[in-house]
Amino acid sequence: MKWLRSDSYSLPIVLALVLHTGVVLAAFFAVGFGTSERKEPKQPVIVNAKIIDVSDTIIGRREAEQRAAEKRAAALAEKKRKEAAEQARQREVARKALEEKQKQVAQAKRLKEQAAAKQRQEAERKALEQKRIAQEAEKKRLEEQKRIAEQKRQEEVKRVEEQKRREEALVRQAEADRLAEQERKRQEEAARIAAQKKAEQEAARQAAAEEEAKRRAADEAQMVQSMSDLINARVTAAWIRPPSARNGMKTELRIFFLPNGEVMSAQVMRSSGDAIFDRNALNAVYRVQRIEELSDVDSYIFERNFRQVDLIFNPQDLRN
What we know:
- The chain has helices at residues 10-33, 58-238, 275-288, 299-305, and strands at 251-257, 263-270, 308-313.
- By secondary structure, the protein is mainly alpha-helical.
- Among the domains are: 2-35 and 43-101; 239-313, Fusion Protein Consisting Of Minor Coat Protein, Glycine Rich Linker, Tola, And A His Tag, Chain: A, Domain 2, CATH 3.30.1150.10.
């Protein structure tokens, strides 16, 4: 039964209740059957009940020892369980460490094998490269020998051809010198004749040019004189005689013309001694405004003779 389990407090409690019940019943029967008359007790009856600690009994001690043994067994079992778990954990750690070490060893071995394979490949590549370089060097050496031999052959051919060309050149040069001498003499004669003819032509041209220059100078002098007379006549026609004008009075004017014959400006270079006479002479020039005939004069002649014209203004019809 459940209440009879060794680790339960039900049994001591039941025993305590039974004991107390027995004490109460014994006291009841003692009072009821001891006397027929009820006497007042001199002192009140005191019932001393004592609670018995089950743990102090044999059964309690046995149960306590049993519980302690069970606790020790449980603690030992827990300790063994923990030790077993720790051992399992350590074995797992050792297994993982071993696996890691094996992986590292395998990785190192693989890397070593790869490095060795790479070194072998590099060695093979270098050997092939050295072989290729040696073959190319041998090929270049043979080609160089062939080139040198061909160069020597060509140089010899060139030397022979050059010698032949020099000999032919000497022959041609001698012939050319002979022909050149003939040509030189012919050209000298032709040059002498041409020079003589040119000198004659130059003399004729110079004579014609001098003649033309004289003619043009005469024409120019005539034109200048004619144009000067025209300018003087135009200015005189535009002149207004002042009351103070007298015979023998003259003013030297300088007139500046534009190529179209227009009067640009004028000034008195030498006075007549009469300011009114001088001013009227200037006013006459400005009244003329333009000499149209100057626009037909050659520009060269205009620049030489009419860009600046000095005019002595002295009308002849002045009274004494």
